[in-house]
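Q: Can someone sanity-check these two? First one:
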Amino acid sequence: MNISYFIAKRILSVKRGSFSRFIAGLAITATTLSVMVMIIALSFANGFDKVISNKVFSFWGHVRVQEGFAANQGTTEDFPVQENKEAEKYLRSIPQVQFVEKYATKSAILKFETNIESVLLKGVDRDFNFTRMQDFLQQGKWLAFPDSGYSMQIDISQYTADKLEVKVGDQLLVYFFQSDGTKKARKLTVAGFFKTGLEEYDKNFALCDINLIRRLNDWAPDEIAGYELYLKDYRMADSVSAMAYKQLPQGWYSKSIKQIYPNIFDWLNLQQQVRSILIGIMIIIAAVNLITCLIIMVLERVRMTGTLKALGSTDWTIQKIFLYNTGFIALSGILLGTILGIGICIMQQQTGFIKLNEESYFISTAAVDINWIQVLIVDALAFIVCIATLIIPTLLVRKVNPVTAIQFR
């Protein structure tokens, strides 16, 4: 028979008026809250990172490949290059790559009645996958491509539409300035409005037909600005970019979108650091509460400890009694915290009851992504840390003198 376990179980069944019972309840509550907060923090941070990353990648891809990229950071108009079939074939052969798309850019001034806005037009062709951007479409539709010539439609952001006071179906006068100082104008019909929630995108970009940019820049039909790679796993962007760079023809460069727009991803990394600090604090709180609980239990059971020692029990046998007690408390808190944390996350997924300021956080509703492996790691880490720290206060048992303890009131 396991004497330590038997006595621990009897202690846990003591009447509710016991002070140690009250302290145990507080310890379970603190552990529950700590584990719950850790799971919620991780799930919300995962969801936030995933949604923001997808917004960035959906518009510009995960990796951008250009010729002469070192001299052009991809934030203004791009220089024309001829399509490189050899490079394109290689890029499509990379296992992690899902799509390879061509693009070009052109600065323009949009005018509607007396309102004027400047944008950078991103030209795409009929192979562009608008499906991944469907959630961004606010009104209208994505531009359509004719069988010949170029599309006379344009998709602008909701921000630009509000500034121009334009509606879907209206015609804009679009001015394009050439390198020699002259300008060209085209009338384009607004096909739809999009909203990514990313200020840097919504204020600066619009979508049009790549053939329009070719025509305005006097480019050849096979000239583009570069290629965009869309990966199966966004976390592979840096490694795929580095791998592609080594295999590309001389003069061609590849950069992940994280390198092109580092400010957005630096902000996301800062959120991850805050998350790590929060998790560390919660683990410390849980451990401190359990240590406090155990010390009170040991002090309240001094007479029992002295009696057991007088009867011949070893220090380790008595220590295990208190470890079983606090182990049960830790497990109870971890289990309850896990249930509550996952429950709140699922409720947020279903109802979206937590709202955010989109201008500050780029999303209007807090996103949640529950990673079950992370949940298991949190539970295991919390339990290991708690048990490891609980061994220290049980050493008080070794200090108890049986004669003095039995006389203790």
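And here is the second, same format, sequence then tokens:
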Amino acid sequence: MCTAGPSMRTAGPPAARPEVPDLSSVACVTMMRAWILPVVLVLCGSVSAVGMILAGNPGAATVILLLFVAFAGVNSPLIFPRSVGALEAQRRSEADGRPVVFWRPGCAYCLRLRMRLGRDARRSYWVDIWRDPAGAAVVRAANGGDETVPTVLVAGRPYVNPDPDWVREQLSRSA
């Protein structure tokens, strides 16, 4: 069950119980955070559509609702390739040379990179830093403590907000 924040659990005897975050709760909270913007967009579109229908304009209501739903879809985790864990992505990248892209939902720069890569985006490994604490740690280490995305890891070296054409070039080298 999801909680409002990360719950803490203790391990060991009472004198030596360090508090350890329950990672299942952390993952649940970050997954919910990724869906906040899309849900808010759909709700706003629904409210707008109902207002337009009550005003006697069902055609415009349909258009507005479809626009809000489309915008919600673009800002949802669904538009991105399936995320893998940072450690697994780095292991696979070392084996085949493909880039690892660290991203988060709602990031306009991540969306720009995803759209400009087109079908080639599926050839890289995508890590959602809101779902993977290890991925967030890699990004913070590469960016002086900031979670700046997209951060692309190529041959173990991080590149922050790289040009999509450069990333496509890296993908063609790994093929």
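A (reply): Looked at the second one. Residues 80 and 114 are 7 Å apart (CA to CA). Residues 8-78 form one domain.
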